[in-house]
From TrEMBL:
NCBIfam families: coaBC_dfp. The lineage of its organism: Bacteria, Pseudomonadati, Bacteroidota, Flavobacteriia, Flavobacteriales. This is Coenzyme A biosynthesis bifunctional protein CoaBC. Residues 1-193 are annotated as: Phosphopantothenoylcysteine decarboxylase. Signal peptide: none annotated. Residues 7-178 form the Flavoprotein domain. Residues 189-399 form the DNA/pantothenate metabolism flavoprotein C-terminal domain. Pathway: Cofactor biosynthesis; coenzyme A biosynthesis; CoA from (R)-pantothenate: step 3/5; Cofactor biosynthesis; coenzyme A biosynthesis; CoA from (R)-pantothenate: step 2/5. The gene is coaBC.
Amino acid sequence: MSVLNGKKILLGVSGGIAAYKTASLVRLFIKAGAHVQVIMTPASKDFVTPLTLSTLSKNPVHSSFFNQDDQDAIWNNHVELGLWADLMLIAPATANTLSKMATGNCDNLLIATYLSAKCPVYFAPAMDLDMYKHPSTISSFTALKQFGNVMIPAENGELASGLSGEGRMAEPENIIAFLEADLESKLPLKGKKILITAGPTYEAIDPVRFIGNHSSGKMGFDIASAAANLGASVILVSGPTSLNIKNSLINVVNVISAQEMYDACHLYFNDVDVTIAAAAVADYKPKVIAVQKIKKATDEFSIELEKTKDILLSLGKIKRNQFLIGFALETENEIENAKLKIQKKNLDLIVLNSLQDKGAGFQKPTNKVTFIDKEFKIEPMDLKSKESVAVDILNKVIEHFYV
């Protein structure tokens, strides 16, 4: 899966012959799973039509501060556009547009949006070779890079003038490859291996019945997805769940019972940097599993149970440098019980859930957690979506390694 998947990309198109390549560029962004909005300078519409880019991006194309044909004259909010984007790419970036970017000469919607953008900005120059080498252009390159913008170097090749040399805008495929490589190199968890457990476990009673719980696995799956988006290589050990996840950085290991989850965790634990135990593992299992379906023959029926192996406890005993995170779902004496679990299981951090909190627990899209670290620092969090909680958890991982 491309690192561009899910990214909100604002493409600025300025008036050069290379603008015709933006149709392919938008198509490649969409194919990579990105969301695209396009801003065109008035001059760029001489080289590629807004209709083409609107059709490919599946969004209206913006060109002026308000739509001339709109009787209500609704304003195209450049600030809103700039804040929407995860990254902005200006391609082609002509000498004229580059000069305006460098000096703040704000006379069109594209430059106004660029000056409002809070996201990383990339630019792909396109011009004739003499223009590309001119001191004023080089000055623009230097200024823009000093501002923190990233230049996608022009390529050598045949130019619109008939000359051949440097100044040709990078091909769309090469622009995509450049962006992917640059974004991946800046991901905070790049090179880290993370083991995550998710979902319930099912402990068989007979061939058709089991002991289980209401865990959907969503919290663990959201953590795995967020970790992969931050560059980590993820091993997701999941109990039975209806959820699916597709990402080349996530290796899903499906298990059913607590013993299977225990075995899978111990198989991978020594090779990971972080383990996040978000699964709701059964504490007990039937001592004897019936070979045949148990018949309803008596008014009363009892099952003798025995403890399952404590996965988190066993990992805490053998951990070396791994950052070990556990979850605690409590109904009473929450803080005290969580602190005891940190000590007993040699955890670095615990994510405490309380069923007393509205919006927390199983089968819900939200969660309300409290972080407690091994120094017993307590940090309560607000009710959030589980996706947001996953990001908060991974921020704790990033802090551990880099702060």
